[in-house]
Structure formats: C-alpha cells, structure tokens
C-alpha cells in the first residue's frame, strides 16, 4: 500500500484517531487519581451552573394528622460559563515513515500505526498535564492559562469571597510535650467550618495539597512526630518526606507537581472530599462538523493531509474541558505564618 493510500485509510479517520487518543495510557495526574471531579460530556460549548443556596434542616416531630412541615424553596443562582478550547498539533512527515517496519514484522501498517500512536501519545500527555493545571487552579478558585493570565476567577463568577487563610504557626523553638495539641488546634475546626458553608452537607474528609516548604515544616514538626512515635508511620514520615500523612483530621500531601503545575512553596489548600457536585468537569464537543451537537468527549483527534497529499499529515488533538469548584467559598487556604 502506498503512503498516500495509508494516509487516506481508516488509520487516519477522525473516528479512529479520536478513539485512539482516548485509549492512550497516559498516567493520570494526582488530582485525576483522587477522582475529585465528576466528569460528564455536554453537547454545548458553554454550561449554566445552578447553585442552590439551601441547607439541610431538621424537621420537627408533629402529632399524627397534623399538617406536614412545608419545605423551603432554595434560592437559585445560575452562572453561565464558556468551556475552554485547548487544541494541539503535531506533524507526521513522509520521511519519518521511510522504510518503516515494526520490529520483527513485515507489516508496514503496524509500523505506521506505531508512528501515529507515538504522536497521539505526546499530544495526550500535553493535554493531560494541561487538564491537571486547570484542576489545580479550580481547587484554589483561580484557573490560569499557560502564560499565567486568568482564565476563570471562580470567586468573581459566583460572587463570593475567598475565605480567610489559616496562618499555620510551626514554631518549634522551646516546644515541649506540654505544648502538644497547639498545632492541631489551628485546623481542628475545619470540617465544621466547611459543613456550615455547604449547608450542613457531610464532608467525608479533608485533603491538603501542600507546597514543599509548608509540607516539610508540618511533617517534621515535633508534635506530629511525637504523635507517630514508635510507629511505622513515624519511620516513613522521617525517612520519606514525599509521602502523605494524616494528622488532625487532614490528609497532608506534598503536591507532586513540576514546572508551573505546582503549589506555592509556603501554601496549601484545604479541600473537602466526598461532597457530590462540588467539583465537576464538563466536556464540550470539538469544533468539527462530525462532533457538532453531540456530547463532548475528553479528547479528540483528527488528521489533515498537506495540499499535495504527498509530504506530511497534520495530527490535531484537543480537549474542551471546564473544570471548576461549584462552591469556591469552601476552599480554605493555608500558609506558613
């Protein structure tokens, strides 16, 4: 089969490429691993997020036959948000396929498919890191673009105020066993505070992704070490500071970022876990005729031949995902005092 015919074969059809890029085995980033965000495809390029300002109240006991307690209608707030469009492109040159053969195989198509998949994998890696970057912004209420400009300020969009930061005092000088509990006391009321903000909805746990400096200061604080003393956890804590640990009802974790995808060194963010609808991802369709008015997928890919149909083929990958916290006022920051 000639290369021109290969480029026009099913290997490079949009449906085949889209299925292939969605099937790539890019390791999920940390926030994706936790499953914080509820993912769903939508057939539109924007979504309306409806916030219900409701509380979970206790109903009174009444005599049999009495009129039931009427339910209060929650006030509703609708916020329309545009779903970001993130396309990337790579080029597969005809020269890259010169004499290509899959090792141990005479089947040229296998080798060409491998070259194609290598390009798709690179694009998916980039889109996966971008998605993590947006989600890292979402759990802090401020989603940034690659150049650091603001894509979405969730506090402004939902007209709420960012909660005051907890100034974490990690002073060690002069610390004695009699001071045990002073560190814990600084964040002991977090879960109650979060539940109140969420209208008494239960919070299953609290995750605190940390910058390097804050994590090290908390993990190596004598109060924490003393709590874990003579346990395997204490050994792990002292020997491998990259591991997470639980203390004071909070899962502390040095966020495993790199480059721009990282927490500020002296900061953390206290994130409620197990709250339905708190963190959501909504995927719009690609800006292609084949995807119009269909529910969006996490990834898309398509191929375009050069005008001569002889020299190269462009592969485009894209994601169209909106990743947000619907109640950003519950995202409590922490920083070293």
UniProtKB/TrEMBL annotation:
Q: Which InterPro entries match?
A: Major_capsid_GpE
Q: Which domain of life is it from?
A: Bacteria
Q: What is this protein called?
A: Phage major capsid protein E
């Amino acid at each position: 089969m000639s290369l021109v015919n290969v480029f026009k074969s099913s290997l490079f059809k949009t449906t085949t490429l889209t299925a292939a890029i969605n099937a790539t085995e890019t390791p999920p980033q940390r926030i994706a691993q936790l499953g914080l965000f509820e993912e769903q495809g939508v057939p539109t390029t924007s979504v309306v997020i409806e916030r219900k300002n409701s509380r979970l109240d206790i109903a009174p006991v009444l005599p049999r036959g009495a009129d039931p307690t009427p339910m209060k209608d929650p006030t509703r707030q609708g916020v329309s948000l545009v779903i970001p469009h993130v396309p990337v492109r790579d080029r597969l040159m005809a020269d890259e396929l010169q004499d290509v053969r899959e090792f141990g195989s005479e089947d040229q198509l296998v080798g060409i498919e491998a070259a194609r998949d290598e390009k798709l994998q690179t694009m998916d890696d980039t889109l996966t890191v971008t998605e993590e970057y947006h989600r890292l912004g979402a759990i802090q209420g401020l989603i940034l673009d690659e150049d650091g400009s603001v894509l979405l300020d969730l506090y402004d969009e939902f007209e709420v105020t960012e909660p005051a930061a907890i100034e974490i005092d990690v002073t060690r000088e002069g610390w004695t066993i009699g001071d045990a509990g002073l560190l814990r006391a600084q964040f002991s009321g977090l879960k109650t505070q979060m539940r109140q903000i969420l209208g008494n909805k239960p919070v299953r746990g609290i995750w605190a992704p940390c910058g390097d400096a804050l994590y090290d200061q908390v993990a190596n604080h004598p109060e924490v070490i003393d709590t874990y003393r003579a346990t395997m956890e204490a050994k792990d804590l002292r020997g491998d500071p990259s591991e997470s640990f639980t203390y004071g009802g909070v899962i502390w974790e040095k966020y495993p970022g790199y480059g721009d995808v990282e927490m500020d060194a002296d900061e953390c963010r206290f994130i409620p876990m197990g709250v339905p609808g708190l963190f959501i991802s909504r995927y719009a369709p690609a800006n292609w005729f084949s995807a119009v008015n269909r529910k969006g997928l996490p990834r898309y890919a398509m191929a375009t031949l050069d005008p001569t149909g002889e020299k190269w083929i462009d592969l485009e990958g894209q994601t169209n995902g909106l990743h947000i916290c619907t109640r950003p006022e519950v995202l409590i920051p922490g920083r070293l005092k």
